[in-house]
Amino acid sequence: MLDRRQFLKLGGATAFATLFGGCEKVQRKLIPFVIPPENYTLGEALWYASGCRQCPAGCGVVVRVSEGRAKKVEGNPLHPVNRGKLCARGQAALQALYHPERLSQPMKLSGARGSGSYKPVSWEEALSLLMGPLKTVKTEAPASLLMLTEPMRGHAGLVAGRFMKAFGSPHRVAWDPFGPDAMITANAAVYGVRDLPEHDLANTRYLLSFSGDFLETGISPVHYAREFGRMRGDRETIRGKFLHFGPRLSMTAAAADLFLPCAPGTEGIVALGIAHVMVRDRLTAAASAAGRLSDDLSPYSPEAVEKKTGVHAHDIAAAAEEFARNQPGLAIGGTAASTGQDGVFHCAAVALLNVLAGNVGEPGGVSFPNRAQAFAKYGAETPLLAPPPESGYAGMRAALEKMRSGAFRMAILSGATNPAFTLPPALKFVEALSKVPFVVAFTSFLDETTSLADLVLPVPTALEEWGDDVAPVGHAGAVTLCQPVVTPFHDTRSMPDVLIAAAKELGGDPAKALPWGSFRECIEKAYGGPGGEMEKALQRGGFFGESLSPRSAPRERKTSFPAARERDFDGDPKAFPLVLHLYPSVTLYDGRGANLPWLQELPDPVTTAMWRNWVEVNPKTASGLDLAEGDAVTITSSSGKIAAHVAFNPGIAPDVAAMPLGQGHTRYGKYANGRGENPISLLPAGETYALQATRVALAKTKLSTTLARAAHPEGQWKVKNMM
Amino acid sequence: MTRKRTHVVLAIALLSLGLLLTTGYAYAAETIPQPVAFSHKIHVTGYKMSCRFCHSSTNKSQFANLPSVEKCMMCHRSIATDKPEVKKVAQYWNGKKPIPWNKVIDVPNHVYFPHRKMVNAGIPCLTCHPGMDQAGTAEQKLEFGMGFCMECHRKKKVSIDCWTCHY
Amino acid sequence: MKHTWAMAIDLDRCTGCGACVVACNAENNIPVIGEAEAAKSRLMHWIRVNRYWEGEFPEAQAIYLPIPCMQCERAPCELVCPVYATYHNEDGLNAMVYNRCIGTRYCANNCPYSVRVFNWYDYKWEKPLDEQLSPDLTVRSRGVMEKCTFCIQRIRRAKEAAAEEGRGIRDGDVVPACVQTCPPGAMVFGDLADPHSEITRKLKDPRRFRLMEHLGTEPRVVYLKRQKGAGR
How many CB pairs under 8 A join B and C? Predict the structure, then answer.
């Protein structure tokens, strides 16, 4: 009947038909609940309030949770610090929660230290691996336990502090590369209060910024940005004038009405120049009353300041006059000045301007609410909760010395501040840590520091754990309550929980000091829960607005400020003609955001570069070195050498080269690794964590990579009629 | 018939068979088996239970939920416990496992279909799910093509803006 | 009830921080494309922040311009779609229907603001990053154009809630993700058809201007010029 040819034709037709028939329907399952949660409607999202904690600013968030998954983070509208607003880093917190490289179980080192090869173990085994050395150290030499974390606030800080005290070790080190310790010390000298003030930007008429980065990364960027918006737009006829002094046109400087460049590291000198004019010419009542300072200020005449800083003498005088005439005026510093070689001096100079303006305790000026009053019941332990006990750079160096001398038998590491990445390699952190026989790390991710541990214990991300927080600024005694917005996604245990369990097993003083069953119980006991007031507070996001009386204004006292110490920048000016200015990245902060794809792909506000770091140079400097946009250069200092692509910044001083911090990871996962080199390696093992006190030289080179930019380099010059 | 014509007819027949076997049309005619032989007829027509007793989120969210095992056990803790299908439900309940139902009713991709809008507008469930009250195992008798939706939308003079449903 | 959605962006308040960009990514299931594709200008961001330089050191200035879809009343993109996948809807929004789009990219070519982005690939979310995807919104596949929608999913939800309560939409019911998160409060969104809404008041400001107005696209996104000096 059918011959082969016909059969093939027909077979082909059928096969062809099957193609056209379309795909078979894939059978899908519908899985109901066994017991549905209370008050739950399928498909309707629930919002949970918690704390953001992606940076130290302490904003409050509400998280949209749909079917047990966190979908969106928004600012908590009730929270006094950010009032419903949230920055890019806060929005990206979800990518940390659902990150593919999160640690899902405890890990034990299965190779040489630093090899990065780990073997997963159960929590039982991990805890026994922890308790063994812990018990031995407690019996034999309790003071040889080191705890190195980022600054811990709230009851997590209390648990850690009590644990160390009961254990018998005074070695608790808190490292934050952008820690405000210099600011706090300066404030103690000038204002008589050892704390960060509230800067009332919303009501000020004149804002002087000294390398201020308060709109991008400094202290509490969302809070300050909101206040800045209010300063510009919420008053009918007042907009405020904003002057920025600094070596670089940063994102914050771009919002200024006038950018007055000054040499790196001279911010405090400019401030004192303005102070000099205010006192000399008796421009304000407070300045007239401060006549006793004229001797201290006499070296800072506008002409002398111009020589040191590059700011024109007439600009200094004009700024002083305008500042005094447009009261209330406000002076604010920034990370570059406060982490400088003479951070305390620079911060004190800026603070002095507020005193001379007479704005202390006034609207539009600085004030000192009693933020820690919520923890007054803890008495002497209050500093464990807020503000954070900062060890600062000096404390970090001392700890490194002790590590090297073999003083520590065990180290507990935690936190996102990653000292192996944020400290200059010249300080030899890795080598020092190698002298500690047993290292335990509490972390959600492996990074340069935690991958040096012998035992890695996975912790939940901030959105998955209980806790509380006190923000450094932006409120008058508010406490943020943090709760898990979703069931922890991996088999994790928070650090306070593990410490509480460890204390119980150690018995004796530690068990007495940490008497709770869990950290959740600790929080509930502290806040009168579960249920009752705490329940209401959890729904709001914390205890807000019930502020007690503000701290009494500092009494009239002789305002002292530390003298400047002349320090040379590292590097011979002839060999290294440019000054390196390193700054926190608005997308990656200190590098902790580098493993989050949304942040890597967010174009930098100043250069629009993504996925890689760069070195900013003035176009004239670049042409002098025969460099075009995107060309590669080596950047050499006396301590190191790296390579990066060039990005022009027309607003940077010709003798300054700037680089953002945050890239250059080698052990932080595939989104973070290999995106340029870490500019911290250019810094010397200095006495201070000075981010703009190193000289460098640039030389043209070749790199196989390109710098991805969102903006076309030519198009970015075409603007008209937007101002 | 000529040989050629026979081949043409055969080709068309095979083509149709191919299409028939592989498109949803053939598929939809079959009843999709379920892990438990729940009968809508018994519960809805027999016991006069309202649709919303089990499908409680239909007027509150975009999804019509399936009842939880707990909801089944509300009655079947004591009712009809000797029936083999009810015993299966009890098994799932005791094992704390959800019943893995197979999806019967589906709306095509890229369509936002909020049940609550339909239900709150007073559209009876049987309009789109005809015969469900008489069905043994659940069946979707109507094919949800865009024409079906548009006909009713036009008749009731509600929005036919693309962005009402496709975003 | 007809609405006339519009947005105002105050350049005097915008600091260029980019929070709006990441908030939009999170809200709208926007894929991350990676370094190689980013270098080819294939960013999928629905809102971008343009930065312009003016002058040179020491008088250099930078000014930021966030650019979402302008939702033009006379949109050049709507005229050229061969399959009517983009059109002007009843609320004055430029609607983009993904399932109609066949990927000619003519609309993107016509857009003077370059706000339309194309799915060159089937972008994948590495597990478990896909747990974050919003169920309220399509995840687009390869070959489809997309752009800012003024958060149509939020507009829908607000309309549903209002209809259920038997009322109209109040000012402040609809807040797109970018507007909600903007820390300096530079963005305002609302219904121009409502005479008492904040947006209606904002658009009376003499500082207002629109991008490339001479092209006659009648954008619904209005900018307020940045100011100089201490007074207003």
Answer: 45
Angle CA A595–A597–A602, to nearest 5: 115
Q: Is A722 touching C (CB cutoff 8 A)? A: yes
Please report which confidence band the pLDDT of residue A381 belongs to, taking 50, 70 and 90 as the band edges: confident
Assess if residue A6 is contained within a domain: no
CB contact under 8 A, A32 and B99: yes
User: What is the arithmetic mean of pLDDT over B74-91?
Assistant: 91
CA dist., res. A228 & res. C182, Å (int):
12
For chains A and B, CB pairs below 8 A equal: 100
Q: Which domain holds residue B127?
A: 31-66+101-165
Reported as a pLDDT band with limits 50, 70 and 90, residue A528 is confident
Residues 6+ positions from C68 with CB-CB distance below 8 Å: C7, C24, C46, C47, C115, C148, C150, C178, C221
Does residue A135 form part of some domain?
yes
* pLDDT number for residue A181: 86
* Shared-domain flag, residues A199 and A320: yes
- Residue ranges making up the domain that contains A632: 578-722
Nearest to C12 among A71, A232, A606 (CB): A232
Share above pLDDT 70 across residues of chain C, in percent, rounded to a whole number? 99
A185 and A172 belong to one structural domain: no
Q: Does residue B134 lie in a domain region?
A: yes
Element (DSSP H or E) covering residue A199: strand A198-199
| Encoded tokens for A382 | 């209050």
Of B61, B68, B97, the CB nearest to A43: B61
- What residues in B contact A17, CB-CB < 8 Å? 14-19
pTM summary value: 0.92
Residue B15 lies in a domain: no
Is any Cβ of chain A less than 8 angstroms from the Cβ of B14? yes
- The verdict on residue A562 lying in a domain is no
Minimum CA–CA partner of A28 in chain B: B103
CB contact under 8 A, C185 and A206: no
Range from A17-26, A185-194, A415-424, B48-57 carrying the lowest mean pLDDT: A17-26
Q: Quick one: A583 and A718 in the same domain?
A: yes
Residue with tokens 């062809």: A16
pLDDT exceeds cutoff 60 at B21: no
Smallest Cβ distance to C181: which of A86, A251, A259? Answer: A86
Tell me, rounded to whole angstroms, the distance of Cα A367 from its chain centroid. 23
Burial bucket for residue B141 (CB in 10 Å: 0-12, 13-18, 19+): exposed
Structure tokens at A372: 């820690």
Using CB atoms, pick whichever of B109, B117, B167 lies closest to residue C153. Answer: B167
Question: Which has the closest alpha carbon to B96: A69, A32, A68?
Answer: A32
Cβ A206 vs Cβ A322: under 8 Å: yes
Interface test with B, best of A16, A19, A33 (most B CBs within 10 A): A33
Domain C5-224 falls under CATH 3.30.70.20: yes
Question: Is the pLDDT at A433 greater than 90, yes or no?
Answer: yes
Query: A344 and A485 share a domain?
Result: no
pLDDT of residue A592: 96
Residue at A124 is within a domain: yes
- Looking at the structure of chain A, the number of domains it has is 4
Of A10, A35, A44, the CB nearest to B68: A35
Listed by start position, the domains of chain C span 5-224
Residues of C in contact with B163 (CB under 8 A): 89, 93, 95, 97, 152
**C18 with A232: Cβ contact below 8 A:** no
Examine residue A530 and say whether the peptide bond preceding it is cis (omega within 30 degrees of 0): yes
- Count of domains observed in chain B: 1
pLDDT digits (tens, 9 = 90+) for A258-272: 999 999 999 999 999
Residues A220 and A353 in one domain: yes
Helix (H) or strand (E) holding A149, with range, is strand A145-149
Minimum CA–CA partner of C40 in chain A: A708
Q: Does the model's ipTM exceed the 0.85 cut?
A: yes
Q: What's the token pair of residue A282?
A: 């008796």
Query: Is residue A436 domain-shared with residue A330, that is, in the same domain?
Result: no
